[in-house]
Amino acid sequence: MREAQQTPSGSNSQSWLFTAIQNRDTLLRLNGLVRTGFQSYEPDDDYPAKHGAKKRAQEESFNFYNHAPALIIASNRSGYENAMADCALALENIFLTAESLGLGSCYINALHWLRNDPGIREYLVELGIPREHTICSSAAVGYIAKPSPVPPRKANTTRIIE
Ligand SMILES: Cc1cc2nc3c(=O)[nH]c(=O)nc-3n(C[C@H](O)[C@H](O)[C@H](O)COP(=O)(O)O)c2cc1C
Question: How many Å lie between the centroid of ligand 1 and the Cα of residue 127?
Answer without folding.
Answer: 26
